[in-house]
Structures are given as C-alpha cells and as structure tokens.
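Work package 3, deliverable 3.1, input record:
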Amino acid sequence: MKLRRKKAFNETTFLLTITITLFFAMYIAGMIVFKNNGFARLQVFLNLFISNASLIVIAAGMTVVMITGGIDISVGSFVAMSCMMLAHMMERSGYGAIHSVLIVLLTGIVFGFVQGYLVSYLKIQPFIVTLAGMFFARGMTAIISQDMISIKNPMFLSWATHKIYLPFGGYTNRKGVLVIPYIYPTVIIALIALVVIWALLRYTKFGRRIYAIGGSETSALLMGLNVRRTRLFAYILDGFLCAIGGILFCLNTCSGFVEQAKGLEMEAIAGAVIGGTLLTGGVGNVFGSLFGVLIKGTIETFITFQGTLSSWWTRITIAALLAFFIILQSLLASSKLKKRR
Amino acid sequence: AQESAAPAASDNLIVVGYAQVGAESDWRTANTQSFKSTFTEANGYRLIFDDAQQKQENQIKAIRSFIQQDVDYIVVAPVVETGWETVLKEAKDAGIPVILSDRMMDVSDPSLYTCWVGGNFIKEGEDAGKWLIDYLKKQGRSNEKINIVTLQGTIGASAQIGRTEGFGNIVKTQPNWNMLAMQTGEFTQAKGQEVMESFLKSYPDIDVVVAENDNMAFGAIDAIKAAGKTCGPNGDIIIISFDAVAAAFDSMIAGDMNVSVECNPLHGPRVAEIIQKLEKGETVDKIQYVVEEVFDTSMDLPAVKATRLY
Amino acid sequence: MNEKLKRITHYRLFLPLICLALVLLVNMIKTPTFFHLSIKNGVLYGYTVDVVNRASELVILAVGMTLVVASSAGTDISVGAVMAVAGAVCCYILSGGAVSVNEYHAPWILGLLAALVAGTVCGAWNGFLVSRMKIQPMVATLILFTAGRGIAQLITKGQITYIRVESFKLLGANIPGIPLPTPIFIAIIVVLITSIVLKKTALGLYIEAVGINPTASRNVGIKSKQIIFFTYTFCGLLAGIAGMIATSRIYSADANNIGLNMELDAILAVALGGNSLGGGKFSISGSVIGAYTIQALTTTLYAMGVSADQIPVYKAIVVVIIVTLQSEEFNRYMRKFSARFAARKAEVAK
Amino acid sequence: MEEHQHVVLTMRGICKSFPGVKALQDVDFTLRTGEIHALMGENGAGKSTLIKVLTGVYELDKGEIRLEGIDHPIVNRSPEEAQSKGISTVYQEVNLCPNLSVAENIYIGREPKKFGRIDWKTMNRLGAELLKSLDIDVDVTVPLGHYSIALQQMVAIARAVDMSAKVLILDEPTSSLDELEVEKLFTLMRKLKGQGVGIIFVTHFLEQVYEVCDRITVLRNGQLVGEYPVAQLPRLQLVAKMMGKDFDDLASIKSLRKHTPAEDVVISTERLGHSGTIKPFDLQIQKGQVVGLAGLLGSGRSELARCIYGTDRPDSGKLHVDGREFAASHPIDSMHAGMAYLPEDRKNEGIIADLSVRENIMIALQAKRGVFKLLSRKEQEEFTDKYIDLLQIKTSDRDAPVKSLSGGNQQKVILGRWLLTEPDFFILDEPTRGIDVGTKTEIQKLVLQLADQGTSVMFISSEIDEMLRTCDKMEVLRDGAKVAELDGDRMSQESIMASIAGGER
Ligand SMILES: Nc1ncnc2c1ncn2[C@@H]1O[C@H](COP(=O)(O)OP(=O)(O)OP(=O)(O)O)[C@@H](O)[C@H]1O
Ligand SMILES: Nc1ncnc2c1ncn2[C@@H]1O[C@H](COP(=O)(O)OP(=O)(O)OP(=O)(O)O)[C@@H](O)[C@H]1O
Ligand SMILES: [Mg+2]
Ligand SMILES: [Mg+2]
C-alpha cells in the first residue's frame, strides 16, 4: 500500500538541535556583551566544564531514569553523602583515597539498587521513593558527621589539583602572570562517562529497553521485555553515576558537610529537560542534557560577569533566563509540531 | 606576587571581586551593603559582586570567573570553611591575592590567602556566658541551680560552632549551671519557635534560653508567651541572644530580651584599609578581628540604636 | 464479621489512617506527655495541639497540590516560594516599605488581599505555562521555584520586615477567647470549602477526567486547559493563604525561610494519602491525613530530641514503610507468601 | 490432512476471575500445528483474557497449560517467558512503543548485533524488507507514533510473524484494517500455516472466519461452548452458539427504515479543508439522513469528521449548522450545536480509563450542562443503568472502572455516553470496531432508529457492507478529496470499490 506519511522527523533530534543552537547563540551573545571582561577567553569556556563536571555526570544519570518515565530527586543529598563519606573515611577513619572512592561507588550501586527495587518491583512512585532517598541520604550525612571536614589526603588532593594544560589559548593577565588554559581530570572523566552512557543507550539492548518502557510500559511488557529488571538496572546505573558525580563534586570542593550540594537535583532535572528529555519518559539524550547543563552554566557565568546584581536580582535573572529559554523552546517545538499536523 | 601587581586598568580603578554568601539574613544584607558602599567608583574601586545563593559550588565558580576577569583582589565570605584548596591555588597561580571575610577557611597551606577579617564567635559565646555570670550575681542567684536550654544555629555553621563552644567554655566553670538540651533552630524564627515549644513541654522549669541568633530568640519569646510564661528582665526566663540587629534592640526595649551580643557586619571599610596597605606594598596581619560589643537592658538602648547602621 | 473487616480494610483511607495511628502510638510509648492537654491562659496547650496547629500550612498546601497532581499528573514545586512572595507582599503593603513598624500603614485587609492576589497571580503564571505553553509541570514551576524567593527579597529589600501589631499575629496565633490557634480553623475551612465545591459541582469529575485522559476529556466537551489552569491558580491562592499564616506566626516577612522545603512535604502528603502522582483519581481527605501524619512525625521526633538534621533519616524510613504497605504489589507478594505458608503448614500437618 | 497434525498447545480447566467477574471458568482449548483456529465469542466472553492468561500477562487461578516438546505443565509468568517458549502475540489494543522507530518496534528484544552492539543499519534494512514483503512502504526510522493505527497494527503483526514462533496469536488484528490489508494478512497466515505454525485468530468478522480458519472454539460468558471444525458449523449456528440464542440475519436490517430523510439540511460544508489532510470538501447532510464515508486507510475520513466536530480546526472553507455559519473553538461548542462524536481511537481519545462506567457515561451530558449543574447521583445511576441495559454492556458493577471492561464493551459505554446527550447530528467513526456480531446488528439498528427519530448520522466504517446496510448516501474519499457521491441505487459494493480504486466516474 502507498502510505502518506507525516513529515519524517524526530522530536528528539529536533529538540536537541534547538538546544545546541540556542546554547551557541547565547554564548556568542555573551562574548559580545562582555567582550571587555574576558568572556571570550578559552578558560571561561573550560570553566563551564570544570565547574559542572559532576553535574554533567549526574544529569546523565537523571536522563537515564527520566527516559524510563521516572525521576530521581535524591541526587543532591546523595552527593552530599558521598562527599561526607569520602571526607570521613579519609580524614577520620584512616582509609586510603582509592578505597574510599571504591566504597562510595559501591554505595552508589547499593543505593540505586534499593531505590530501583522499590520503584520497579514494589511499583512505588519514583518521586516518592527518591524523595525518601533524598531525606535518607541527607540525614545520613548528618549522622556520619555534623562537622565540616576538609580533605587533606595527599593522594586525593593531588587528583583534585592536577591541572592538565592545553597547548594553546594562553594569555598574560594584569598581574603579568602567564595564564595557560587547563582542565582537571574531572572533566575528562565526565566526558568519558557521557560517551559511555550515550553508547549504552544507543547500542545496547538494555539502552533500547529503557526507551521502550518509557514510551509505553504496558507495550514493553506485552512485547516481552523484562520491564522490571530493566527499570531496576536503570536506577542502579543512575546510582552509580551519582556516585561518580559525587566523587567529581568532592574533587572540586574537597570537603564534606551536611548542607553540601543542596538543590543539585533541580539543576540536574533542569539540565536534562532543557536538553530535550521529557519527564513523561521515552524521549531524551545524554548529549542534550550536557548542553542543558552548559546552558545553565552559561547563564550563571553571565551573572558573575555582570557583577552588580544583588542576591535577589541574581535569582530573578537566572529564573528569567531559564523561563525565556524554556518558553522559547516550547514555542519552537510547538510551531514545528503544528506544521507537521 | 604583590609587587608585580600591574597598574590598575585604564580607568585606574582597583578591581575587587567579592564573593558573598547570599542574603540569608539581615546581618548578611548589612554586610553586603557595607561592601557596596565602601567599594564605590568615587572611592577608586570597581566592585564585581557575586551572590552565591548559599552554595559553595557557586562561590568556587565565582572565584574562577574573577580570575578570568583579571580582578586585582578577590574577597570571599566563604559559605563554609572547607574545600577551598583547588580554587585558591588557581587564584594564587594567577597572582591574585585573596582576602577572607567573616568565616575562616580551613586550608592546608595558609599562604593561599592573604588575611582574614571577621568577628570572633568563640569570644561572642564567652561574652554571653560572662554576662550571665554577672547578671545572676547581681540578682543574687549565683548559687541557685540554673537550667539552660540552647537554640543552636544551623549545625556546622561557624557561628553555631563558635558560639556553642564559647558559651560551653563558661558553662564548664559554673557547676550550678545545668544545660538541659541543645537543639538546632536553623537560625530561623519559625524553627526557633517550634523547637522552643517542644522544650517548654519537656522541661517545665527553664531559667535561661540561649538563642544563637536574634531571629530564633524572637521565636522563643513568642513560644514562651504562648505557654503562659514571661521572659526578659522582669520575667521568669532570661533570654540571651546574638547578633544585635535592629529588631533585637526593639525586643530589648520592649522588655522581652535580656541581652544580645553584637556580631559586627561592617567589614567593608576594614577590607578597604587592608587593600590600601597591600597596594602600598605593606604587609598585613593574618587575622584581624572586628570590634564587637554586648548590649543589654541596663543601657540606654534607644540612644544606642539611633547610632547604629543595621 | 470477616466481610465487615474486609470492607473496612478496602476503604480508601484505611491505610493512611493506620499510618497516622501508628505514628501516634509510637508517641504514646516514647513520649508519655505527648497526649497531655492542659489549659493555659484559656488556651488549649499540648503536643497534640502543636501537631494540628503546625500542620495547618501543610494541610492547605496539600489540598492545592492534590488538585494540581490530579489534573496535570505533575507537581507544583513553587508553592514554598509562593508562600514567601505572598508574605513579602503583605508585609510590604502593611509596613509601607519600612523595615519594622508598630502600626499598620494600610488596612490589614488590604495586605491580606494583596497577599492572596500575589499567590493567585503566581499560580496563574504556573497554570499558563503548563496549560497553554505545554511545559512540563515540574519545569514550569521550577521557574518560580528559582525566582520566588528572589522576588520576595526584592520586595523586602533583603531584610526581614516586621509588623509588630497585635492584630497581625491573630492569624497565626490564638484569637482571644478561642481555645485553639487560628490556623487550625483556617485549614479546616479550606478543606471544607474545597470538598464541598468538589462534591456539589462537577469540578472534581472534570479534574479527574482531565488528569486521566486530556484528549478524551476534550472530546466530551471539557475544557482541559481551563481545568489545568484553574487547579494551578487555585494552588497558588492556597499557597498565598498558607504564606499569610506563616507570616503571621512570625509577624514578619522572612523571604528566605517562609515555606522552605514545604513543597516536598506537600507532595509527600499527597502521596501518603494514597493518591497517585500520575494524576487522575484523587482524595482530598487522604492528602489531609497525609499532611497531619508528616507533622505528627516531625513533632514526635522533636519531642524525642532527635537532632534536626538527622530527622530526615527517620522520616525517610517511615515514609518507605508507609508507601510499601500501601503498595499493591507488596500486598500481592504478601498474599502469595502467606498462601504458600498456609499450604506448607497444611502439608506439615498431614 | 488431520492425521499428520499434532497438538502443539493444550489448555485444560482454565479459570480466571477478576474482582466481581469470573472471566474464565473451566475453559479447555486445543491448538494443532498448521491450523488456524478461530476463537469466537461475544464482547466480554473472555477471549482476550484466555490469551493473556496463556501468555502470562495475567496469572491464572487454576488450570493447566501444556506446550509441545515440554513434558510438564508450563506457567508463563510474563510475556517475556511466553515469547521465549515460542508463543508470539498481537494483542487486541495496538501495543507497541510510539516513541521507538518502526524498525525498533519490530526487532526490540532481538536486535541484530555486530561486534556486540546493535547494528542499526541491518535492523533498518531488515525492517524495511519485512514491511516491503507485506507491501507496506514506510520510513522505518521514523517513530511509530507518527503513523496511523492501521499501520501500527500492521507493524505489530509483522513483528509477531517475524518471530516465526510455534504459536502465533492474533487478537482482533483486522479490526482497523481495510480489505486489501486483510487479504495480505490472510495470505501471510496461510503461508505460516503451511510452515506448521499454529495460529489462534480472534475476530468478530464471520466471513473472515470462514475464509481462513480450520476450526472454531466458541466461548460464552467465560465458559466453553465447544470446539468445531469450520465445515460443520454454518454461520447461523455459529452465531447462535456465541449468543446462546437464535439470531435474525443481518440482511434484513435496511427494511427497518421507516422514514426517508427530511429535506432540511442540518450540516453542510463549503470547501472545508485542512492543509495536508483534506482538500476542500463540499457535503450536505439532511435531517434524519445517514451519510457514509468510504475510502481506504488514511483517505481522510476521520480527518473530515474531526474538522466538522471541531477537535481539529479546519483552515479553509465554511461549516454551516442548521443553515447558520458555525465555527467551533472547542468540542463543547459543537456539542451545544447538537453534535456528538465517537472517535476511532477508543483507547486514547474515547474512554477515560480510570473513571467508572457511570462516570464515563454521564460525563458528556454533564459537560453540556455545565460544571455547576451536577447531575444528581440518582439521575446518574438511572441513566447508567438504562444504557447498560439498552446496549447490554457487560460489567460487574456500574461503578467498576471502565478499563476493566472488554474492548467491545468499552465501545458500548462510549456509545451510551453520546446517546445520553440526545444529539441531532452523530458522527460515528468506526463504531463497530471490535464489536461482536450480535451487538453490531444492534448498533446498526440503533443508527437507523436514530435516523428515524430525526437524528442525522455520519457513519465511517471500513466495512462497506455495513455502510450499505445503513446509509442513505455515501461519500467516497481518496487522498483527502471527494471522488464520488453515491446514493440510492448507485450505491453498491462494486461502484464504491470502483470509485476508491480510482476509475473515471
Ligand atoms: N483487568 C481486568 N479487570 C477486571 N475485569 C476484567 C479485566 N480484564 C477483563 N475483565 C473482564 O473479563 C471479562 C472478559 O473480558 P475479555 O477482555 O477477555 O473479553 P473479550 O472476549 O476479549 O471481549 P472483546 O471481544 O470485547 O474484546 C469481561 O467481563 C471483562 O469485563
Ligand atoms: N499510512 C499512513 N501513514 C502516515 N500517516 C497516515 C497514514 N494513514 C493516515 N495517516 C494520517 O493519520 C491521520 C488520520 O487519517 P484518517 O484517519 O483521517 O484516515 P481514515 O480514512 O479515517 O483512515 P482510517 O481508516 O485509518 O481511520 C491523518 O492525519 C493522516 O494523514
Ligand atoms: Mg478482547
Ligand atoms: Mg479513520
């Protein structure tokens, strides 16, 4: 039969294109507006990655669970718990850096397993499970220690402060010091994790099942996919990524305390959504989330470069830019969809 | 690196990047205001202000951004004491001196920052304790058993740690003082009230409430009144508080609060002084306390309040 | 007898009620004074009064949140921030912009109305984004979640604005001569009015229909977008009311702390009440019970002297236990398990 | 032939009950290799339930299932397990993932791999080839949700067929297909049969049963009526067995019509169009007239209906209702103008799954009355009972959630919903899809009754017979444009087919 088909295009790719285009538009706008303040320097761009390395990994994990139609709001607290564990183990309990890191990774897997079990096998709503997870991890952080612990473990610090210099883009600042662009190992780890997750989602059965159950859980079940196990693994993967994220976060801040990483979950969710992931599941891409995070980072960089905003204006401006972006994205998407109809 | 400081930018202003915690309290707002009114173009400065919304990550980002913006000095009021190694090293590598305000930083290498300006929380706590000794002596209750409860600040905050420790130092010297309970009221009035309500039900005879900031004290006062008790100089319960913001003076004048130990937020001028010295190439003291007083109801409070800026 | 028991256990609110009872039972054992009531200054006084009193804002928010969840299968995470905005607007009007006043600069009712309008406007903005712009609820409300406290601070210029007038405290404390705190009554009134409206009109049905299947609802003539818009606006209004209570309790606008983290508790209350966060069928009474359960838990932990920043751990454990007990899947496992157990026992008996 | 057929699947004493309903009681079923076995029964007889018990979607309460080559009774705990044992299924409602590409939907769970990773190229190529062999030419890389239900149904079939199982189950696969596609499906089924696959086939089209099936098992009210070779069970008897009573033949329906339509035009369109789907269209419907829309899949029949009703907004032309120009901004406007619309996509646009039967029935009338005039509980129950009775809706309770009803009964609920609003103009898009013969006749009668009472009806169906029986006038569509308007004697199977096929007329 001859079939008339609605114009071939794919929401995911489309939203991703919007996001990437808007990101570059925004960044270039920043270079023009703040051209006298050094916004165009390579290091400013690299700082986006340095400061957001952990968020990139966490947003990737968030993307995975969001594709299944779930959500994980425990990530911020979990990061705090990871940092506290690292700090406490290395500074108070005499563990080595490597052991501590491995234990945190394991904890991430266990944490993901428990949350995943509750979500997939007991069918409790993800929001509630991870809300409990959020409370639990934050409270546990306080139970481990109510102090602020600085990490002074030499090995850990050497990881944290090991600059990897780039061979180009250096400049001399006003103090006459030659500043050479650099990144930290955290950035490389984050990017590797991102690529691995991307490949996992695209090229493995597990990855495709995640999309399938997000698209329609009943259908996936009736098509003979093991929905529960897939979802469980998605949360385990998320837990593992959160642990990596926690470690990267700790490499950036080198300390543990109760209030750490508050609200990180919202940043991760915002990053994923701006990157074109649907909270309803089935649609999403980790690279989208990467750009979502970078967009948020760029907005924040604008604010620091602006440099005169008071606290309230900072919040309002961030929200306004966020609103602008979300609404623009929604308008573009819906006008495109209309054309399709 | 300070000698090599290049002459200021074309407009000859000294560029200062200030990474503030947020605007979580009146104290903080007064502190910000102090910086904004000191580092004006008229005074020869350009201030780049960044508000971290109470998040350390944001402050780290801000410091990195200051480095890229080629500021002459970085001033940080750290959200927390820990975790600054990496980014301070970046500032040092770029040759930019860092001045700390309000809270300390816990770093392995003290040369990472130039100096620190702030109040002495432990001393504040001790001052409060000493005030109580005097006050009880005046009332002739020195040998009575005194039951105390403490509304702590947000656990882990420097102010909470310092004030708890300072007051604790005095408690240890007074065998007749009995610390019934300590619970955090998270520096807010509402939580202070809620926790105080709970204290009042569990402990029928409380003599002294130590609230680690004024807001929690206000909440505690409300809870006490609601429970049918009285507080203040003429009441059943003695209220000791910290910060001495304007509202605390109102409360003392109204006879609800006994004492408030000042925590001076006006760090701006002090930091400006330091920067001037550094510009001239002089060395500065590593630790610089700001002056702090104790205000209680025995003073002419309306007159004192009129002279205060916050 | 057995039939009757079954009927009771199948009653929708059975589990939420059991949970509340359990929390209270723990109290009875752990803190014997928990149920003591006494009269002080003509006012009822005791832990239980505190629970009911302190839960008022949460109850009010939970009502609005229930409707939002039911109609849009999404949550409004901005309610806490909206409370702060409402409080700030009110205090700004009443103080005329000063930091602390001892008398009103404008009639009290004007401040109240302004606060409610502010809440409603915020809700309408969320509703607009969700219903018209088709933005996912959590993301749409993320905007006000981020901006709300900023707006509130902008209004109060970053300072805590005090209204030191006795009558201002009435909304959050006791009206002289009435033995219970005012918030309790406000919460009851909100719950009653909402339930009556939902019962006496088709609104409840519409909300459920839209939450379950917006396309089909549209086809049968329900204006899905309007309904969703309405629930968000109403949720905003209720957040405004809750904000007024919270403000009145501390007779000041504290932009940073009013309603802090309340959104999470409100969502939790909805879920503990046995409502699905996936939209559709809902029960207001369930959410209300959920809200009281959460507050009872918090007060209990305070009474037991648990440190505030460790409280979340216990809260998490209790929440997980409660939702697990409520989960159908879990009950299925249990039934299967007990059937197998019975079978084995029968075998052994043979 | 019978001799070298052996049994591939037996089900013995199968019981399954849901709260309030005994969906299956002691049902036996036997499937042999290389046979097409029809599973017949009225709506709610338990056909889908039997299948779902077999494939592990539902847990069975009692009974025994045996599969060839396994020497102990099997229990499938999940569709995954059933699939791994060689049972592949197309379920009643299209059950695929709309967000995945067409090719993925076919291959998910068994993707072709290369170097341990999914080989997209091969998958897309295989998918395209497979669909090509069914004569379907689509872009397999596009998300499935972009295609019509019919196409989705074909993809689901392709998926099940391609898994080349021992047992293939097709639960009403033909309900949304047109005749050409049904033919293609049958060719395919015969081929598989030749390869020795046992096929279970559920349908409400009796002709189809007699065309392809070898054996029939009849269920009634969850109980087994019997198993018969097709040759020994003539049509009328089959229907009698399904319904448990004798059945008056379909052919006589048209004679029920008493009145001819009045002259006054109720609905007329003037070059009504919607870019991309329907070209400017002129149509007139008189009071009490039944107008049929004929055409192939995707010819734009549903689109036209949607434009008239106002779920989609036409972007050119005019619509007149009772002579006055009318533009609906929301379906509620159309409802106030006296329209009613039964959509073709029951699952997504019709039922409100979690609401009860009662609420689903009363909701349209309620919406018409407005939010403040709530129907009293008593009225609601009266109305509900009336339509449960009138349409013989099988439900345990008027307050049972509508999602617990069988597919056909859900359709009746929606029908009842609209009848309750007493419309002047009723748009029925595939109203008989998934409905058993008995009820089908009832619905056809109902349509004629409505017309007699002065209601105008727009009737869309893939079954030309059915339309011939009920319609006064037929509009034939092709590619969104009207190619013929037939009435009276010019209306016949041949003339319609000819118009659809595109002969010059
Ligand atoms: N999940 C369920 N919960 C409760 N009752 C159910 C459920 N599924 C089916 N039923 C009931 O079981 C009976 C048999 O339904 P089933 O879907 O098997 O019918 P069917 O023969 O496939 O009908 P149709 O031809 O309409 O598809 C019906 O009365 C239906 O209401
Ligand atoms: N095979 C197809 N491929 C892509 N899009 C299609 C296909 N068939 C229909 N559509 C689209 O689906 C929508 C519905 O078509 P429509 O339902 O009006 O046709 P129809 O004649 O009613 O067919 P059906 O018998 O499937 O109901 C239209 O937007 C049409 O463009
Ligand atoms: Mg069926
Ligand atoms: Mg159609």
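The longest strand of chain B covers residues 177-184.
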